[in-house]
Design goal:
Strand content: 15-25%
Strand order of the largest sheet: 3-2-1-4-8
Order of helices and strands: EHEHEHEEHEEHEHHHEHHHHEEH
Enzyme class: transferase
Keywords: Glycosyltransferase, Transferase
EC number: 2.4.-.-
Organism: Rhizobium mulingense
Protein name: Glycosyltransferase family 2 protein
Largest sheet: 5 strands, mixed
Distance between the termini: 31 Å
């Protein structure tokens, strides 16, 4: 096993798979170029685009010389990421999809978080803000605090939640086989990132940066909006894990129910009747008992909250203030642009910054 040392600032390879991404790629590239940690290699992998993606990325490489543009026949996001990882020269890889964005301190703070492990050998992640087509926040990930051995918590809930967040040792990603392109070939594209994270979590510790540093874009046509495909992908990923860890079957089955219920609620909120027609029979047929228990628990929680509100009114106590921060990080405010979270840095850099080291 290769141990990565922190004697010198490591090269980080950013991998951007891009398919027909001319509308969003420039914003993604800007967010990568503006990272406070600048020892980057930026690989844009054009996955057989039919629009101006390749030309846009090539023009941008003239502005930022760290950018290289690779090209392949259309093979899906997993093959595009694997192509970039295969060409990478960095000790770590950081993928980001061509419609997502990063906070400027994302890479720097992730590297700092890895210093707690011997040789900085581990995986770093952070929380994310959900953004719409215009980069406006409408939600955020649940701010979990899992660190170290996160394999079992990750089985129960994909709290990383997207493919644009982790910072991973390249050698370990290659050892795990990279992203599984076979899921796409089986008509089950969607959980390639979760499968890789679980493989890494079996042997590596994970470090958390407790802040919302990824802007994860949700659009109606993106992969995660196809519920049945995502659920099929989730089932295929979990099947061999159940075989290896039969004692975790119950946790995995609960995770399957929670995932299905999440997609059902998402379709309901979006009035996506096509998805609802597909999901309703599945929910009723496979998860009838779980739905009853879930509904009872939800009713109890609502009744409890209502009772607390009435008690406060009777006692004339002020309502509990909603939290604005968690673990020291400001909670993303719905209706505000993700870019508003960027705080001027004033030129102060941490010891992990390559610019600081190079100037010593």
């Amino acid at each position: 096993m290769t141990i990565i040392t922190t004697a010198a600032p490591p090269l980080i390879t950013v991998v951007i798979p891009a398919y027909n991404a001319e509308k969003t790629l420039l914003e993604t590239l800007h967010s990568v170029s503006k990272q406070t940690y600048d020892k980057l290699e930026i690989l844009v992998v054009d996955d057989g685009s039919r629009d101006g993606t390749f030309a846009l990325a090539s023009d941008y490489s003239l502005i930022d010389r760290r950018v290289r543009v690779l090209r392949q026949a259309n093979g899906g996001v997993a093959r595009a990421r694997n192509h970039g990882i295969g060409e990478a020269r960095g000790a770590y890889v950081a993928p980001i999809d061509a419609d997502d964005v990063w906070h400027p301190e994302k890479i720097e703070r992730q590297l700092q978080s890895l210093r707690k492990f011997p040789g900085s050998h581990g995986v770093a992640y952070n929380w994310y803000a959900a953004i719409d087509e215009n980069g406006v926040i409408f939600g955020n990930s649940r701010p979990v605090l899992h660190e170290g051995n996160i394999f079992e918590p990750l089985l129960r809930e994909n709290f990383i939640g997207n493919g644009s967040t982790p910072l991973m040792p390249r050698a370990e990603v290659l050892r795990c086989g990279g992203y599984d392109a076979g899921l796409r070939d089986s008509g089950a594209e969607g959980c390639e990132d979760l499968k890789l994270y679980l493989a890494l979590a079996e042997t590596l510790p994970f470090a958390l940066v407790p802040d919302f540093l990824t802007g994860y874009r949700f659009t109606r046509g993106n992969m995660s909006s196809n519920a049945l495909r995502m659920l099929k992908s989730h089932a295929l990923v979990m099947a061999p894990i159940i075989d290896r860890y039969p004692h975790l079957r119950r946790d995995i089955e609960t995770a399957k129910f929670n995932t299905t219920h999440w997609y059902f609620n998402k379709a309901l909120a979006n009035r996506d009747y096509a998805q609802l027609r597909n999901l309703a029979p599945m929910m009723a047929g496979q998860y009838g008992p779980q739905l009853i228990v879930h509904s009872l628990r939800q009713s109890f929680r609502l009744a409890k909250r209502h009772g607390v509100r009435i008690a406060r009114q009777i006692l004339r106590k002020p309502s509990a203030r909603s939290k604005t921060r968690v673990a020291g990080a400001a909670i993303p405010q719905a209706g505000t642009p993700f870019s508003d979270r960027f705080v001027p840095l004033g030129g102060v850099l941490s010891p992990t910054s390559s610019r600081m080291v190079d100037n010593e």
